[in-house]
């Protein structure tokens, strides 16, 4: 994966190319007084991982397969949030083996995910249709297929599963975070103006930001950290299992116990985040206004910690920093005339979603 966008300069260029397409799309909108950014933000993020995995990007006026994928995934998340059987199944996993009960606890969800993931399966087949393994790979699917010839542990099943995991993980959380960022900056216009001033002083208006600009943009970095803290979209990450009996603060945890860190609670209730219900990027800056507070940065854990932290962290960080700064560089994001921004979550499932609200955009 590193050869096709994860952790290399290739990744940054893919993100910037996708953002360039996104900004051109905004420029062409006829009515900037009433702009719905939901689907444009979905596409700008999906196009990066889509190009890494499958070698192509969507046009903004021709992305129905992506729209269908996202809509079906949202419907499943909403259904799961109301399904008490899932919680029962996690507490009593033996029930999942029973015919009727097991279908409603696990089987139905697996079936629906298989239907949703058909999007990925179709794209894998499309990428491989005319590919010769003797040719130079142009995407992850090609590279994986080449490696299969030399590694018996790699097969088509694992290829499909890996692509499904990367597409899901590399899409929804990042686009949702950017949606939150747009709402927050529209709510706090003075912070948006300060951010824009820093962007223009460091980058100007004639080129898009690059990751190397970060060192000269402490307020932009602080804004991104505060967005991820204030509007953390994932309450918990993948659970761990205690491999040995252990006692922590007088609480005995036997071997085999599922353990999960409550990321959302930490970033909302850690006493180091004074007035944590307020959006204040400057909390991350030292008194000099130029350097970040290490103690707060280390407590901001949107990607979790350890070996099972988010595998796409470097890609997500690039998409978030470059996405936020590129949009603010070119557009002023404002509430619609006579309307106020609502920062209460719309829905809480595995992802904490913002309410869908339209914006007024002003070209800078």
UniProtKB/TrEMBL annotation:
Localization in the cell: Endoplasmic reticulum membrane; Microsome membrane
Residues the entry annotates as binding heme: 310
UniProt cross-references to Gene3D superfamilies, sorted A to Z: Cytochrome P450
Single GO cellular component term: endoplasmic reticulum membrane
One GO MF term: monooxygenase activity
Named cofactor requirement(s): heme
Domain of life: Eukaryota
Swiss-Prot/TrEMBL keywords: Endoplasmic reticulum, Heme, Iron, Membrane, Metal-binding, Microsome, Monooxygenase, Oxidoreductase
Membrane topology: Peripheral membrane protein
Protein family membership: Belongs to the cytochrome P450 family.
Protein name: Cytochrome P450
Organism the protein comes from: Pristionchus mayeri
